[in-house]
Amino acid sequence: MILFGHPAGNPNSHHAALAHFEKGRLAAFCVPWMPSTAALQILKAVPQLRPMAQRLSRRMFPLLEGAPKIQGRLGEFRRLFLRAIGMGGERLSYEANDWVMRTMRHACRRTEVSAVHCYEDASLWQFQEAKRLGKACIYDMPIGYYPAWERKQAELARQFSDWLPAPGLPSEKFVRPEQKRLEMELADLVLAPSLFVENTIRDFYPEKKIARASYGVDLDFWNPRGPSRPPGPLRFIYVGQLSIRKGIPVLLRAWKQAGLTDATLTLVGNWQLAEHSRRELDKTVEYHGPCASWEIRRWFHASDVFLFPSFFEGFALVVLEAMACGLPVVASDAIIGSDMLDDSSGRATQAGDIDGLVHCLRWFSEHRDSLQAMSEAARSKVERFSWERYRQCVSSAVSPFV
Question: What is the pTM of this model?
Answer without folding.
Answer: 0.87
